[in-house]
Amino acid sequence: MGRSPCCEKAHTNKGAWTKEEDDRLISYIRAHGEGCWRSLPKAAGLLRCGKSCRLRWINYLRPDLKRGNFTEEEDELIIKLHSLLGNKWSLIAGRLPGRTDNEIKNYWNTHIRRKLINRGIDPATHRPINEPSTSEAAATISFASSIAAASKEEKNNNNNNAVFVVKEEKNPIQEKCPDLNLELRISPPSTSSSSETLKTGGGMMSLCFTCRLGLQSSKECSCCGGTGSGGIGISTGSKSGYDFLGLKTGVLDYRSLEMK
DNA sequence: AAATGTCGCAACCGCCCCTGG
DNA sequence: CCCAGGGGCGGTTGCGACATT
Protein backbone atom coordinates (compact mmCIF):
# COMPACT_ATOMS: atom_id res chain seq x y z
CA MET A 1 0.00 0.00 0.00
CA GLY A 2 1.74 3.09 -1.19
CA ARG A 3 1.70 6.44 0.42
CA SER A 4 -0.31 8.99 -1.45
CA PRO A 5 1.78 11.81 -2.85
CA CYS A 6 1.71 15.02 -0.89
CA CYS A 7 0.48 16.90 -3.94
CA GLU A 8 -0.44 16.57 -7.57
CA LYS A 9 3.02 16.77 -9.04
CA ALA A 10 1.68 17.16 -12.53
CA HIS A 11 0.04 20.46 -11.71
CA THR A 12 2.62 22.04 -9.44
CA ASN A 13 5.41 24.45 -10.18
CA LYS A 14 8.91 23.57 -9.15
CA GLY A 15 12.14 25.43 -8.86
CA ALA A 16 12.73 28.99 -7.83
CA TRP A 17 9.85 30.97 -6.41
CA THR A 18 8.67 34.07 -8.21
CA LYS A 19 7.95 37.35 -6.52
CA GLU A 20 4.29 36.90 -7.20
CA GLU A 21 4.25 33.48 -5.57
CA ASP A 22 6.05 34.87 -2.56
CA ASP A 23 3.55 37.67 -2.27
CA ARG A 24 0.63 35.29 -2.51
CA LEU A 25 2.06 33.05 0.17
CA ILE A 26 2.90 35.92 2.50
CA SER A 27 -0.47 37.55 2.17
CA TYR A 28 -2.28 34.28 2.66
CA ILE A 29 -0.34 33.41 5.81
CA ARG A 30 -0.78 36.93 7.14
CA ALA A 31 -4.50 36.59 6.67
CA HIS A 32 -4.98 33.01 7.79
CA GLY A 33 -1.89 32.02 9.66
CA GLU A 34 0.15 28.88 9.20
CA GLY A 35 -2.42 26.19 8.96
CA CYS A 36 -2.79 23.06 6.91
CA TRP A 37 0.09 23.12 4.49
CA ARG A 38 -1.47 20.55 2.24
CA SER A 39 -4.53 22.64 1.53
CA LEU A 40 -2.74 25.97 1.67
CA PRO A 41 -1.52 26.10 -1.93
CA LYS A 42 -5.00 25.68 -3.33
CA ALA A 43 -6.50 28.13 -0.88
CA ALA A 44 -3.77 30.66 -1.64
CA GLY A 45 -4.02 30.14 -5.36
CA LEU A 46 -0.55 28.71 -5.66
CA LEU A 47 0.47 25.92 -7.99
CA ARG A 48 2.90 24.58 -5.45
CA CYS A 49 3.26 21.56 -3.25
CA GLY A 50 2.28 22.21 0.35
CA LYS A 51 5.69 21.15 1.50
CA SER A 52 7.26 23.58 -0.87
CA CYS A 53 5.14 26.38 0.58
CA ARG A 54 6.09 25.43 4.09
CA LEU A 55 9.77 25.34 3.22
CA ARG A 56 9.62 28.65 1.42
CA TRP A 57 7.88 30.28 4.34
CA ILE A 58 10.08 28.82 7.04
CA ASN A 59 13.38 29.27 5.28
CA TYR A 60 12.89 32.51 3.45
CA LEU A 61 9.72 34.47 4.00
CA ARG A 62 9.17 34.38 7.74
CA PRO A 63 9.36 37.92 9.07
CA ASP A 64 11.50 37.01 12.06
CA LEU A 65 14.37 35.66 10.04
CA LYS A 66 17.74 37.18 10.70
CA ARG A 67 19.46 37.16 7.37
CA GLY A 68 23.06 38.00 6.77
CA ASN A 69 26.39 36.71 7.91
CA PHE A 70 26.81 34.54 10.94
CA THR A 71 28.67 36.12 13.80
CA GLU A 72 31.70 34.56 15.43
CA GLU A 73 29.56 33.82 18.49
CA GLU A 74 27.01 32.04 16.34
CA ASP A 75 29.81 30.04 14.71
CA GLU A 76 31.08 28.84 18.03
CA LEU A 77 27.63 28.10 19.30
CA ILE A 78 26.83 26.03 16.25
CA ILE A 79 30.04 24.08 16.70
CA LYS A 80 29.26 23.38 20.33
CA LEU A 81 25.69 22.43 19.64
CA HIS A 82 26.74 20.20 16.78
CA SER A 83 29.19 18.45 19.04
CA LEU A 84 26.31 17.78 21.39
CA LEU A 85 23.46 17.13 19.00
CA GLY A 86 25.04 15.97 15.78
CA ASN A 87 23.20 16.80 12.58
CA LYS A 88 20.04 17.78 14.38
CA TRP A 89 19.81 21.01 12.47
CA SER A 90 16.35 21.87 13.61
CA LEU A 91 17.38 21.56 17.23
CA ILE A 92 20.45 23.63 16.59
CA ALA A 93 18.36 26.20 14.76
CA GLY A 94 16.09 26.35 17.76
CA ARG A 95 18.96 27.78 19.76
CA LEU A 96 19.75 30.41 17.17
CA PRO A 97 16.90 32.85 16.96
CA GLY A 98 16.23 34.00 13.44
CA ARG A 99 18.21 31.21 11.86
CA THR A 100 16.70 28.26 10.06
CA ASP A 101 17.76 24.67 10.04
CA ASN A 102 18.42 24.82 6.33
CA GLU A 103 20.54 27.91 6.69
CA ILE A 104 22.58 26.41 9.48
CA LYS A 105 22.97 23.14 7.62
CA ASN A 106 24.25 24.97 4.56
CA TYR A 107 26.50 27.15 6.65
CA TRP A 108 27.91 24.15 8.40
CA ASN A 109 28.64 22.34 5.17
CA THR A 110 30.20 25.32 3.45
CA HIS A 111 32.01 27.21 6.20
CA ILE A 112 32.25 25.53 9.55
CA ARG A 113 33.34 22.16 8.28
CA ARG A 114 36.27 23.81 6.58
CA LYS A 115 36.96 25.92 9.61
CA LEU A 116 37.15 22.87 11.86
CA ILE A 117 39.32 20.98 9.41
CA ASN A 118 41.69 23.92 9.33
CA ARG A 119 41.80 23.74 13.10
CA GLY A 120 42.69 20.07 12.83
CA ILE A 121 39.35 18.93 14.13
CA ASP A 122 37.23 16.29 12.49
CA PRO A 123 33.86 17.98 11.93
CA ALA A 124 32.02 14.69 12.20
CA THR A 125 33.42 13.62 15.54
CA HIS A 126 34.73 16.92 16.90
CA ARG A 127 37.93 15.13 17.74
CA PRO A 128 41.39 16.05 16.60
CA ILE A 129 41.93 14.60 13.16
CA ASN A 130 45.12 12.84 14.22
CA GLU A 131 43.51 11.43 17.31
CA PRO A 132 43.27 7.63 17.10
CA SER A 133 39.64 6.62 17.17
CA THR A 134 39.98 4.38 20.17
CA SER A 135 38.32 6.58 22.68
CA GLU A 136 34.68 5.93 21.99
CA ALA A 137 33.60 7.87 24.99
CA ALA A 138 35.10 11.03 23.71
CA ALA A 139 32.69 11.13 20.81
CA THR A 140 29.67 10.09 22.74
CA ILE A 141 27.44 12.24 24.78
CA SER A 142 27.45 10.97 28.27
CA PHE A 143 24.12 11.03 30.00
CA ALA A 144 25.64 9.74 33.17
CA SER A 145 24.35 11.44 36.21
CA SER A 146 26.90 13.51 37.92
CA ILE A 147 26.26 15.04 41.26
CA ALA A 148 29.17 17.31 40.76
CA ALA A 149 27.67 18.49 37.54
CA ALA A 150 24.70 19.81 39.35
CA SER A 151 26.91 22.64 40.48
CA LYS A 152 26.18 25.28 43.01
CA GLU A 153 23.39 26.79 41.02
CA GLU A 154 21.17 23.81 41.40
CA LYS A 155 21.08 24.40 45.11
CA ASN A 156 19.70 27.80 44.41
CA ASN A 157 16.95 26.51 42.19
CA ASN A 158 14.90 23.72 43.57
CA ASN A 159 11.97 24.43 41.28
CA ASN A 160 13.70 23.27 38.18
CA ASN A 161 11.47 21.68 35.63
CA ALA A 162 13.91 20.49 33.07
CA VAL A 163 17.44 20.82 34.19
CA PHE A 164 20.25 20.45 31.76
CA VAL A 165 23.80 20.66 32.76
CA VAL A 166 26.38 21.07 30.10
CA LYS A 167 29.55 20.23 31.86
CA GLU A 168 33.04 20.34 30.63
CA GLU A 169 35.36 17.69 31.90
CA LYS A 170 39.08 17.73 31.71
CA ASN A 171 40.65 14.99 29.72
CA PRO A 172 43.40 14.97 27.12
CA ILE A 173 41.02 15.76 24.29
CA GLN A 174 39.32 18.35 26.34
CA GLU A 175 42.55 20.07 26.99
CA LYS A 176 43.25 20.23 23.30
CA CYS A 177 39.72 21.29 22.48
CA PRO A 178 38.31 22.76 25.63
CA ASP A 179 34.89 23.33 24.19
CA LEU A 180 34.29 19.73 23.26
CA ASN A 181 33.05 16.67 25.02
CA LEU A 182 30.40 18.56 26.84
CA GLU A 183 28.26 16.48 29.07
CA LEU A 184 24.53 16.68 29.22
CA ARG A 185 22.59 15.82 32.23
CA ILE A 186 18.87 15.55 31.99
CA SER A 187 16.22 15.24 34.58
CA PRO A 188 12.54 14.90 33.86
CA PRO A 189 10.39 17.98 33.88
CA SER A 190 7.87 18.61 36.54
CA THR A 191 4.61 20.42 36.02
CA SER A 192 4.56 22.60 39.03
CA SER A 193 6.36 25.62 37.77
CA SER A 194 5.29 28.12 35.20
CA SER A 195 8.67 28.58 33.72
CA GLU A 196 11.40 26.32 32.60
CA THR A 197 14.86 26.61 33.92
CA LEU A 198 17.92 25.43 32.24
CA LYS A 199 21.49 25.35 33.11
CA THR A 200 24.51 25.65 31.04
CA GLY A 201 28.09 25.52 31.99
CA GLY A 202 27.96 29.15 32.79
CA GLY A 203 24.57 30.28 33.83
CA MET A 204 20.98 29.75 34.69
CA MET A 205 18.13 30.72 32.50
CA SER A 206 14.46 30.89 33.20
CA LEU A 207 12.20 30.71 30.19
CA CYS A 208 8.92 32.47 29.93
CA PHE A 209 5.95 30.82 28.33
CA THR A 210 6.54 32.67 25.09
CA CYS A 211 10.01 31.29 24.81
CA ARG A 212 8.80 27.82 25.57
CA LEU A 213 6.60 28.16 22.54
CA GLY A 214 9.68 28.88 20.55
CA LEU A 215 8.95 32.58 20.27
CA GLN A 216 12.11 33.87 21.79
CA SER A 217 12.69 37.51 21.38
CA SER A 218 9.13 38.12 20.40
CA LYS A 219 7.27 41.13 21.70
CA GLU A 220 5.49 38.95 24.22
CA CYS A 221 8.68 37.48 25.54
CA SER A 222 9.22 38.42 29.12
CA CYS A 223 12.54 36.77 29.71
CA CYS A 224 14.32 37.93 26.59
CA GLY A 225 12.74 41.32 26.89
CA GLY A 226 11.54 41.06 23.33
CA THR A 227 14.62 42.85 22.18
CA GLY A 228 15.11 40.71 19.16
CA SER A 229 18.62 40.08 20.21
CA GLY A 230 17.90 36.54 21.18
CA GLY A 231 20.29 34.84 23.47
CA ILE A 232 23.50 33.09 22.91
CA GLY A 233 23.71 31.56 26.27
CA ILE A 234 25.48 28.28 26.16
CA SER A 235 28.94 29.58 26.45
CA THR A 236 28.35 33.01 27.82
CA GLY A 237 26.00 32.06 30.56
CA SER A 238 23.74 34.93 29.70
CA LYS A 239 20.27 34.99 31.13
CA SER A 240 18.66 35.56 27.83
CA GLY A 241 16.03 32.86 27.82
CA TYR A 242 17.79 30.62 25.47
CA ASP A 243 15.71 27.61 24.58
CA PHE A 244 18.44 25.11 24.84
CA LEU A 245 17.89 21.47 23.83
CA GLY A 246 14.48 21.77 22.29
CA LEU A 247 12.43 22.76 25.23
CA LYS A 248 9.80 24.34 23.09
CA THR A 249 7.36 21.73 24.15
CA GLY A 250 8.43 21.56 27.72
CA VAL A 251 9.32 17.91 27.40
CA LEU A 252 12.65 16.76 26.19
CA ASP A 253 12.63 13.92 23.76
CA TYR A 254 15.88 12.19 24.55
CA ARG A 255 15.91 10.60 21.11
CA SER A 256 16.55 13.98 19.67
CA LEU A 257 19.83 14.02 21.50
CA GLU A 258 21.16 10.86 20.05
CA MET A 259 24.33 11.23 18.10
CA LYS A 260 24.39 9.68 14.67
C1' DA B 1 36.70 38.48 -23.13
C1' DA B 2 35.58 33.73 -23.03
C1' DA B 3 35.85 29.25 -20.98
C1' DT B 4 36.16 26.51 -17.09
C1' DG B 5 36.08 25.46 -12.25
C1' DT B 6 34.39 26.20 -7.60
C1' DC B 7 31.31 27.67 -4.17
C1' DG B 8 27.06 28.76 -1.78
C1' DC B 9 22.33 28.60 -1.29
C1' DA B 10 17.50 27.61 -2.32
C1' DA B 11 14.70 23.97 -3.14
C1' DC B 12 13.47 19.13 -3.65
C1' DC B 13 13.15 14.29 -2.20
C1' DG B 14 12.14 10.68 0.61
C1' DC B 15 11.88 8.88 5.05
C1' DC B 16 10.26 9.10 9.81
C1' DC B 17 7.30 10.46 13.56
C1' DC B 18 3.07 11.95 15.49
C1' DT B 19 -1.77 12.09 15.74
C1' DG B 20 -6.52 11.15 15.00
C1' DG B 21 -10.00 8.01 13.48
C1' DC C 1 -3.90 -1.70 18.20
C1' DC C 2 -3.66 -0.51 13.44
C1' DC C 3 -3.63 2.51 9.63
C1' DA C 4 -3.57 6.65 6.89
C1' DG C 5 -2.66 11.47 6.58
C1' DG C 6 0.01 15.37 7.59
C1' DG C 7 3.99 17.67 9.11
C1' DG C 8 8.88 17.84 10.01
C1' DC C 9 13.57 16.69 9.27
C1' DG C 10 18.08 15.56 7.17
C1' DG C 11 20.42 14.57 2.95
C1' DT C 12 21.06 15.73 -1.68
C1' DT C 13 20.74 18.22 -5.96
C1' DG C 14 20.65 21.96 -9.30
C1' DC C 15 21.71 26.32 -10.60
C1' DG C 16 23.38 30.93 -10.40
C1' DA C 17 27.24 33.79 -8.87
C1' DC C 18 31.87 34.39 -8.47
C1' DA C 19 36.81 33.26 -9.15
C1' DT C 20 40.45 31.62 -11.87
C1' DT C 21 42.87 30.50 -16.03
From TrEMBL:
Myb-like domain ranges (all copies): 9-61, 62-112
Protein's UniProt keywords contain Acetylation: no
GO cellular component: nucleus
Predominant subcellular localization, coarse grouping: nucleus
Stretches assigned to the HTH myb-type domain: 9-61, 62-116
Leader sequence segment: none
UniProt entry keywords in alphabetical sequence: DNA-binding, Nucleus, Repeat
Residue ranges crossing the lipid bilayer per the database entry: none
InterPro entries: Homeodomain-like_sf, Myb_dom, Myb_TF_plants, SANT/Myb
Entry keyword Flavoprotein: no
A GO term for molecular function: DNA binding
Cellular compartments annotated: Nucleus
PANTHER family: F14D16.11-RELATED
Protein name: SANT/Myb domain
Species in which this protein is naturally found: Dillenia turbinata
